[in-house]
Specification:
Layout (H helix, E strand, L loop, with lengths): L1 H25 L3 E6 L6 H11 L6 E7 L4 H7 L4 E6 L8 H8 L9 E5 L16 E7 L6 H4 L1 H5 L1 E7 L11 H11 L5 E4 L8 H20 L1
Parallel strand pairs: 1-4, 1-5, 2-3, 2-4, 5-6, 6-7
Helix pairs in contact: 1-4
Length: 223
């Protein structure tokens, strides 16, 4: 019976995710699901991205947290649209929550929608949100073995960002070892970027990936 309940929950989520994917496709919106453990730097990454690429793309963010609207306020301060989802203890965002959040966003002319998922290295990967890509962030303060210990997150992600590279000389983190783990367990073709949201070193690699994926989405819409 428990297995049946879990299956029903996932099937209901996937049905709505299909509707979201169709909506994003019709409106030519690149939807990205950002996942990581708490404190890995998702919000800092978004602050830089929304500010630095404001002249190129119209962007919005759906923020997921257990409580508070702290991150949504940080995002909104960049001038981007932001809507907060408080899960009240839930460990991930669901497609029904995203569907509801979209009612509070102006989707006309939107180029990129970022979904900042709840900080958690397990549950978010199992729930399809209709996104074009899942993106996983890993902080060097977490340990270079995290991709090996939490492979599902990386197995489903199109890109992995290793953040806080400015701290590499202060922590026991082997960048090559982490990269090899990611490539070993990750989705075929996964791209790995090392960067620092504090110093902004390496962010251009991430921006380049965004530009390529935005262009690819546009080509799909034209065909």
């Amino acid at each position: 019976m428990k297995i049946s309940v879990v299956r029903n929950v996932l099937e209901a989520n996937e049905s709505l995710a299909g509707q979201l994917r169709a909506l994003f496709g019709e409106r030519n919106i690149l939807a990205l699901n950002l996942m990581s453990s708490p404190g890995a730097g998702k919000t800092s990454l978004l602050e830089h991205t929304l500010t630095d690429l404001a002249g190129e793309f119209r962007m919005a963010v759906v923020e997921g947290d257990l409580q508070t609207d702290n991150d949504a306020r940080r995002v909104a301060a960049t001038g981007a649209q932001a809507v907060q989802i408080n899960t009240e203890g839930g460990c991930h965002l669901s497609s029904s929550q995203i569907m509801e959040a979209l009612k509070h966003l102006d989707l006309d002319g939107l180029d990129i929608l970022f979904i900042e998922n709840v900080g958690n290295l397990v549950c978010p990967a199992s729930f399809d949100l209709g996104e074009d890509h899942k993106i996983t962030l890993l902080s060097v303060t977490e340990g270079d073995d995290k991709p090996e210990k939490y492979p599902v997150m990386f197995n489903l992600s199109s890109a992995a960002l290793i953040n806080k590279s400015d701290l590499l000389s202060y922590v026991d983190f082997d960048l090559d070892r982490a990269r090899n783990f990611i490539l070993g367990v990750g989705k075929p073709g996964i791209e790995v970027f090392s960067l620092s949201c504090r110093t902004k070193e390496g962010l251009e690699g991430w921006y380049g990936w965004l530009r390529r994926e935005r262009e690819r989405k546009s080509r799909q819409a034209r065909n």
